[in-house]
Design goal:
The chain has 331 residues and is an alpha/beta fold. The protein is built from twelve helices and 14 strands.
């Protein structure tokens, strides 16, 4: 294997273990670390692994490098080793000490990385510190895969807004609601109806644990009184948000974020200012259309039901098919 092929192989492992922190490290990025040294036979082997497990706790590099550090064999194993990490090591004191300093201290000889860190507190300073210590730095290995894994983090840092996922369920023939529910029923008096299958519902609740917030409009809130919690999948609970442009709501539950912003852009700015890194928009047709028209969204997730409604409220029509993901029921 070439060195690039070897680097790619270990970086894939980095990304794999980094993903285990999804939903638990926000607003921090997902980061994994693999340390590869040489055994007594001269062959490369993985010395240690680690990933960022929870916001405010050790970063991935620190978790990997402190593992077994008390033993002499463990300490020697790091000398001259290659450290693989999918995001530039931090160089500043935050809730934890700088990872770049620990990498230098442990005698790592080479660092291979996916992505530069766009955070102004890091932004090249981590790499500069490593190179000043004589450590070889290789950048851009699996760069696109790394950006996809941390798409929430990069969107938040580079665009100054949360990563936006539009989600709805629709029938096999493209309707969001049956004719009776779409016919102008008074808010709060409509009948509940389900298009998602049981396995699609579990998937939806898993998605809720992975994002920072869920947003609905006032009409959906008044009609359905949704809980917006992850009840069918174990994980962190998202921040419930209701957008109430017309100021109709007087009884928003404690813990909900009640926004009265006018536009999609203002709504996303309000979420960004509250350090909300990602949001699922689960509202009705009106709010979904507003986001689609604004272009301020990143993914569309459609839960396609096997049910045919033969009429009713038509589902939205996304204009950018590249962002659309359709999830069919498990058969």
């Amino acid at each position: 294997m070439t060195q690039h092929e070897i680097d790619t192989q270990y970086m894939r492992r980095c990304l794999q273990i980094a993903a285990q922190g999804l939903g638990r490290v926000r607003p921090n990025p997902l980061v994994g670390c693999v340390v590869v040294g040489r055994g007594a036979d001269g062959k490369s082997r993985v010395v240690s692994e680690g990933y960022h497990q929870e916001h405010g706790h050790n970063h991935a590099e620190r978790n990997a490098l402190l593992r077994g550090a008390d033993s002499p064999a463990g300490a020697r194993a790091y000398e001259g080793a290659t450290l693989y990490v999918n995001l530039e090591p931090c160089s500043h004191y935050g809730l934890t000490p700088p990872c770049a300093d620990l990498i230098v201290e442990k005698g790592i000889g080479r660092v291979v990385c996916c992505n530069d860190d766009p955070n102004p507190l890091v932004a090249g300073r981590g790499f500069a510190k490593l190179e000043a210590a004589g450590i070889e730095v290789v950048r851009g290995v699996l760069e696109e895969e790394g950006r996809w894994l941390n798409r929430r983090f990069f969107t938040y840092m580079e665009q100054g807004r949360p990563y936006v996922i539009l989600k709805w369920a629709e029938s096999a023939d493209g309707y969001m609601a049956p004719a009776a529910a779409a016919g102008g029923a008074v808010a709060g008096q409509g009948k509940s109806y389900w298009l998602s299958t049981e396995d699609q519902n579990r998937l939806n609740h898993r998605w809720r644990t992975e994002e920072a917030a869920i947003l609905v409009g006032s009409e959906t809130y008044l009609r359905d009184r949704p809980a917006l919690t992850a009840r069918h999948y174990l994980g962190p609970q998202p921040q419930p948000v209701v957008l109430d442009r017309r100021g109709r709501l007087k009884d928003v539950p404690s813990g909900w974020l009640h926004l009265q912003t006018e536009s999609v852009g203002e709504t996303l700015t309000a979420l960004y200012e509250r350090k909300i890194q990602s949001v699922i928009v689960e509202g009705g047709r009106q709010i979904l259309d507003a986001f689609l028209a604004s272009g301020l969204y990143d993914e569309v997730r459609i839960l396609r039901s096997p049910v045919r409604l033969c009429g009713g409220l038509a589902a939205p029509t996304p204009t950018d098919e590249r962002k659309v993901h359709i999830y069919m029921p498990i058969r």
